[in-house]
């Protein structure tokens, strides 16, 4: 019974304790690149690092150079990451990338959640309320389903038609 108790306790602790790579991934997602596929970034970055020892087969494109710059920023941001990646197996590299990606995705979700209520404040005229009201915690009734937000989403030339034929 005692071993089962400790195993259960360790499992609960493992679920509540966040890996430092997730924390670093949050910072990476906020400060460097919010919509990055971290696994691809690391895989390509390690490939370029391996090519640096010899002559590259072809000169890198502007996109590849920019991607490698982001990869180097990730390595500088996380202490010991380069050494850890170099000595890791492919499966461990995938796990490291997944943890960093989890943090970046969490940061993006936090930012999106915070923007929703700020946008409602921004589009509401001072001293007035929107009609119909847009609840802060309900997704329906936003976007093209609301006259004010629908008009803001329409290109300028088409907004005239949106006002003539609003979604009801």
Report on the structure:
The chain has 8 helices and no strands. It has 168 residues and is mainly α. α3 packs across α6. The longest helix is centred in the middle third of the chain and has 34 residues, at 90-123.
Any key phrases for this structure?
168 residues, mainly alpha, 8 helices, 67% helix, elongated
The termini sit apart by: 63 Å
Number of helices: 8
Q: Which segments are poorly predicted (pLDDT under 50) over 5 or more consecutive residues?
A: none
Q: Strand count, sense and closure of the main sheet?
A: none
Q: Please state the structural category.
A: mainly alpha
**Integer average pLDDT:** 81
Radius of gyration: 24 Å
Counted beta strands: 0
Q: Please report which band the strand proportion falls in: under 5%, 5-15%, 15-25%, 25-35%, 35-45% or over 45%.
A: under 5%
The helix content is 55-70%
Compact description:
This protein has about 170 residues and is mainly alpha-helical. The chain has helices at about 1-15, 20-30, 40-50, 60-75, 80-85, 90-125, 145-155, 155-165.
